[in-house]
Amino acid sequence: MFIVFPFVILASFWGRYAGGNAIFKALHFWSDIWFLMCGLRVSITYEVPHNLNKQYVFVANHISYLDAAMLVKIFRQPFRPLGKIELQSIPIFGYIYKQVVVLVNRSDAEHRRQSIQHLLNVMKHGISIIIFPEGTFNETTEPLGPFFDGAFRIAIETQTPIKPVIFPDTFTRMHPSSILTLTPGPCRAIFLAEIPVAGYTLNELPELKQQVMDVMSAKLREYKAPWIGGNTQ
Length: 233
Fold this sequence. Notes:
Blueprint: H1 5-11, H2 18-37, E1 40-46, E2 57-60, H3 66-74, E3 79-84, H4 93-100, E4 102-104, H5 109-124, E5 128-131, H6 150-158, E6 162-166, H7 170-173, E7 185-191, H8 205-222
Parallel strand pairs: 1-7, 2-5, 2-6, 3-4, 3-5
Antiparallel strand pairs: 6-7
Helix pairs in contact: 1-2, 2-3
């Protein structure tokens, strides 16, 4: 982070969109080195061919602090994640974080609304977005926790397809109880088939949300996510 920090400061003067895209290029360099040094062997599976030039609303499961780092490692197209506002207070990391993440205070309804509006503005610039629809760590033994509406509302309002991504190994590589539990080993990212939203209205948001949840849950079971059913081995 110290190595990329001067570039982040410089790129931040280029504006929210061009500067943010440039910062992510620096973070790709950081992630390639960091994952290698930590012994994390990241593999990416595309269940169907993936179009890097197409705009998506990406949604991913959230089970570990490592999930955020995985975003930088696996996404090589312009994107912005929705992230917790609390993390901006971390020295060095926090400054970088707030340059490239749309911040949200989930305990504040007005702040959530403003964050959604910011994401809509991001999409007008041709940039994809990614949201953890669970909002926080899934602390159950089910594949997923309950979903918030935000990602699905944005997808419907912009008529942008949803592309689910699952991380079945981050729970094992870094247990949600502490960042000090990091262990080397395989770390898979699986891009699932896109889910079209053409023709959907906001009245159909609950059905779309359930459809995405069902698809992701089934795939997390198929790829044997270890927290399901209390299996933490």
